[in-house]
């Protein structure tokens, strides 16, 4: 195979549908299809009721693209290509990179963001978040790593798995560095709209930098991962056209029912996201209390998203801890080994309504 196995996805494949309690999921609770349909306006209800299950427009349903563009400043429907979220990463990397290019990517992170570049034959420099500084990024490191063949910078804010998000000034500086050196940016924004304080929401990279591709979708903040609907946005027409052409070799077009359900959800996104954020904020309060009362873990409170990356103190193996936990209690956590980031952290998810119940079970286990 061209790529190494996607360790996180393999771990999820092992436990996601067999473990009794999920405490590491990154998405919010999946919505019921009937709840989404209840939100439909007359036009989208009509589209749903009379839907033909044939092929769809390759670039995405025009109404869906309109709705997507409305979420951005200065992005038009012509700057949008609908994709399966993970596919967006694949398309962008394959359309930007060739063997021998140099790529800088935030790390730890969602494996495909750098693995595909390595599979293409690129040299990848990992730009590590600094735990001692609250998972902050060192911009001087970024500047020092740029070489004549650096083609792409890959960033992911809000960040999986730490929940870190830079300040607006830092973000602007990152974009300025990329522009100054004429480097493309792939900005994975899958956790956007999950900022605990809306003032922390960064612009989309595709709004502010002409050679940036941004990725977003309905999987996380909207709790609709099963629709498999996402999109890339970019003002770089030539790059967008390359991605459109490449998509003919991956999925050709989106799923007809998913497009209409995503359209309905986006037309009601404020309501759906605010409900999910309420759950997240309640859960975060409980996690604060949980972490304050113990010395087994070190907790850096995230600033956005639905996941965090606590450390297990005392140099205990995270993999052994997670595997024992799931075997003895049915609670699934995600060890940092699946991120290729040592064996001392685990990913915790707090986007689900049953988190308080699962956290209680986790506390009982730790006490015992
Ligand atoms: C940072 C990041 N990017 C992309 C994806 C891919 O999204 P999807 O699973 O909806 O294809 C994920 C999913 O977990 C993610 O965390």
TrEMBL record:
Where does the signal sequence lie?
Answer: none
Task: State the Gene Ontology terms under molecular function.
Answer: catalytic activity; pyridoxal phosphate binding
Read off the Pfam families from this record: Aminotran_1_2
Ranges for domain Aminotransferase class I/classII large come to 22-354
Q: Which residues cross the membrane?
A: none
PROSITE patterns xrefs: AA_TRANSFER_CLASS_1
Concerning PANTHER family, the annotation shows: AMINOTRANSFERASE FUNCTION, HYPOTHETICAL (EUROFUNG)
What protein am I looking at?
Unannotated protein
The species this protein was found in: freshwater metagenome
């Amino acid at each position: 195979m061209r790529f190494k196995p996607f360790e996180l996805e393999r771990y999820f494949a092992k436990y996601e549908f067999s473990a009794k309690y999920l405490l590491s999921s990154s998405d919010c609770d999946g919505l019921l299809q009937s709840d989404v349909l209840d939100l439909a306006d007359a036009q989208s209800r009509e589209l749903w009721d009379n839907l033909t299950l044939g092929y769809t427009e390759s670039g995405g349903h025009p109404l869906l693209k309109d709705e997507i563009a409305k979420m951005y400043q200065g992005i038009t429907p012509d700057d949008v290509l609908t994709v399966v979220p993970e596919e967006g990463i694949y398309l962008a990397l394959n359309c930007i990179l060739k063997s021998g290019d140099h790529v800088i990517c935030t790390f730890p992170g969602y494996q495909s963001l750098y693995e595909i570049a390595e599979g293409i034959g690129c040299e990848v420099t990992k730009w590590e978040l600094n735990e001692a500084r609250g998972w902050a990024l060192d911009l001087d490191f970024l500047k020092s790593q740029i070489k004549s063949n650096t083609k792409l910078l890959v960033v992911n804010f809000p960040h999986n798995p730490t929940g870190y998000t830079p300040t607006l000034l830092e973000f602007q500086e990152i974009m300025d560095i990329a522009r100054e050196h004429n480097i493309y940016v792939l900005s994975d924004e899958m956790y956007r709209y999950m900022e605990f304080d809306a003032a922390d929401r960064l612009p989309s990279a595709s709004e502010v930098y002409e050679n940036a591709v941004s990725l977003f979708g309905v999987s996380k903040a909207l709790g609709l991962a099963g629709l498999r609907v996402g999109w890339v946005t970019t003002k770089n027409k030539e790059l967008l056209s390359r991605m459109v052409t490449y998509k003919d070799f991956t999925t050709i077009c989106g799923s007809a029912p998913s497009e209409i359900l995503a359209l309905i959800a986006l037309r009601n996104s404020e309501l759906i996201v605010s409900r999910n954020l309420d759950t997240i904020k309640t859960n975060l309060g409980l996690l604060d209390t949980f972490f304050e009362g113990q010395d087994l873990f070190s907790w850096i409170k995230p600033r956005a998203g639905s996941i965090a990356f606590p450390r297990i103190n005392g140099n205990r193996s995270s993999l052994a801890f997670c595997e024992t936990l799931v075997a003895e209690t049915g609670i699934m956590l995600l060890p940092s080994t699946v991120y290729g980031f040592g064996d001392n952290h685990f990913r915790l998810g707090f986007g689900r309504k049953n988190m308080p119940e699962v956290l209680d079970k986790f506390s009982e286990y730790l006490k015992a």
